[in-house]
Amino acid sequence: MRKTYWPLLKTTVTFLLFFFFMGIVFSYAMFHGGFVSWFLFYATLPLTLYLLITMIYPLRNFRVERMLSTSECKVGETVKVTLTIKRTMPFPLFYLLIHDQLPMEAVKGTPPVRALLFPGLKRTLSYSYELQSVRRGEYHFQGVTLSTGDPLGFVQKHHFVSLKDELLVFPEHELAYYEHTGQNRQEGDALARMFDVIDTTMAVGAREYVPGDKFSWVDWKSTARKRTLMTKEFEQRSGHTVRLLLDRSEQQNVAPESFERNISFAVSLAKAIIRKGTTLHFLSLGKDTVNIHLEALKNQESSFRQVLHHLARAERDGEAPFAKQVQETLMRSEKEVTMVFVVQRLDPMLVTTLIKAKETFPYLVVFMPGEDSRDAGQRTLEKQLSAHGMTIGRIRRENIGKAWFEVTK
Fold it and tell me: What percentage of the chain reaches a pLDDT higher than 70?
């Protein structure tokens, strides 16, 4: 209660003291007379009237609007924010201080946004600023605080305007390479190499060239127009399924940057898989398990949006070990799939789980942060996986789009 009424009490006491001072000046002018005494009284009278009007001027009638240049963007992009303030009664306020309450975690090192405006008699005021290099996540803008006062600081007024907006920042993703090279058990229990069927008689689009594309697929017209090597896209039908598991467990000894690279790689690989017309089961294992099923050639773009929206909000919140979550997931998984694990860090329990899984799932790939290659303990665990025929990939900032190509070439 003290915090609620203190600003009003402070203003009231200050205002009463100022009027008491005015009363002394008026009494001095009445009893002493003369030019100087009456000059002092009339010189302070306009300031007194201004203080009175400023004190009763309603900031609550101000209408504030916040406009974001976009409500969805990718990591590293710039978002322009425009604040527009409208009022119905023009009064020459000495100043107007705007404080937009930002989600501080959106941009590293961003100070609170405060703008000092001199409204004069303007009915509409506008102020713009930019959020540069935004981070991945979902951010909520809460409101704007308006402050004003008189030139001498006797009166200070504040008003909070609830103004909620949301900004969703998607993870950074690149055009990635994916080609199925595993094996699948066919009818009659015969092992056969899975193959993709590509209809090369008609191109359905063009995209940037990635390692592994055939030279005969180069679209020379698009290459000349965009001045970068472009490859034709064909309709592709695939007979295999990929199950992609992302590790979201709490890891105290893994840098946040490593987790962000894992997120970028997971979304890039997921995009590459569905572009191949492959059925994808995307599982994000953390505090809760998110299972997104992308059926081959059936609304995959809309389903991929679900993956993007989930990974924009994903956090390392899993309390249970990733190995335990993997064990529970594998019990419900069909056997004829390609298993891809994107992990933050290897541990003995996880290695044991993966080795056991290898007996059931013939083709299993593990991706982990690239900086762990300097860790002797991680290299030892990695050798154990390699000894059982597992493919290990390293995720680095420079190879997010090529990591799959590097482990399957």
Answer: 82
> According to the model, what pLDDT value does residue 192 have?
34
* Residue 402 near residue 177 (C-beta atoms within 8 A): yes
pTM given for the model: 0.75
Within a domain: residue 34? no
Indicate whether 348 and 380 sit together in one domain.
yes
Check whether residue 381 and residue 276 sit in a common domain. yes
Residues 268 and 400 in one domain: yes
- Three-class DSSP labels, the chain: CHHHHHHHHHHHHHHHHHHHHHHHHHHHHHHHCCHHHHHHHHHHHHHHHHHHHHHHCCHHHCEEEEEECCCEEECCCCEEEEEEEECCCCCCECCEEEEECCCHHHCCCCCCEEEEECCECCCEEEEEEEECCCCCEEEEEEEEEEEEECCCCCCEEEEEEEEEEEEEEECCCCCCCCCCCCEEECCCCCEEECCEEEEEEEEEEEEECCCCCCHHHECHHHHHHHCCCEEEEEEEEECCEEEEEEECECCCCCCHHHHHHHHHHHHHHHHHHHHCCCEEEEEEECCCEEEEEECCCCCHHHHHHHHHHHHHHCCCCECCCHHHHHHHHHCCCCCCCEEEEECCCCCHHHHHHHHHHHCCCCCEEEEEEHHHHHCHHHHHHHHHHHHCCCEEEEECHHHCCCHHHHHHC
CATH number of domain containing 286? 3.40.50.410
pLDDT, average across residues 72-83:
91
Q: Is 140 part of a structural domain of the chain?
A: yes
Judgement on whether residues 202 and 293 belong to the same structural domain of the protein: no
* pLDDT tens, residue by residue, 228-285: 777 766 555 456 789 999 999 988 788 889 999 999 999 999 988 888 878 889 999 9
Cα(87)–Cα(64) distance, rounded to whole angstroms? 9
From residue 139, alpha-carbon distances to 26, 77, 102 in Å are: 56, 15, 9
Among 35-44, 62-71, 196-205, 214-223, where is mean pLDDT lowest?
Answer: 196-205
Q: The domain spanning residue 134 has which CATH number?
A: 2.60.40.10
| pLDDT one-digit tens code per residue, 20-51 | 777 777 787 777 777 777 777 777 778 878 88
